[in-house]
Amino acid sequence: MLIKKLLIVLLLIPVAAYCQKDIDNFRNYKWDTPFAQMSEGMTPTKSSTPGFKGYEKTNDNLMYEGIQAASIIYLFKNGLFTGVTIAIFKKDVPKALANLKAKYGEPKTTQTPFLNNYEWYLEKSVIVLSEFPTNTSEPAASIGIRKPR
Question: Is the pTM value of this prediction over 0.85?
Answer without folding.
Answer: no
